[in-house]
Amino acid sequence: MATITEGGPLKAHAENRAGSEFRDVNLASSRFDDVNLRGAVFTNVALSGATIRDACLADVSIADAGYEGMRIEGILVTELLRVYRERNGAAG
Questions:
Q1: 47, 66, 46, 63: which is closest to 55 by C-alpha?
Q2: Model's pTM, two decimal places?
Q3: Which of 6, 18, 54, 86 to pair with 33, CA 20 to 30 A apart?
């Protein structure tokens, strides 16, 4: 059964919300701590200014995304991709 909320901030602690769906939802400035997102799918999401720390990114796939200003361990992703493409002859 779907749950409809009246809007405003929500707090969930130690809950199982597996299989949930969020569509046309504003979660700006939200905080996620000790959250399991394994197998989640993100489409048409805005992550500008987001920070990810202490995360397991094993087997994560990112495609058709804007990488301007994105950094991994302080290195610009656009620079990493440019160097990779230069060394491997891949089109950019």
A1: 47
A2: 0.75
A3: 6
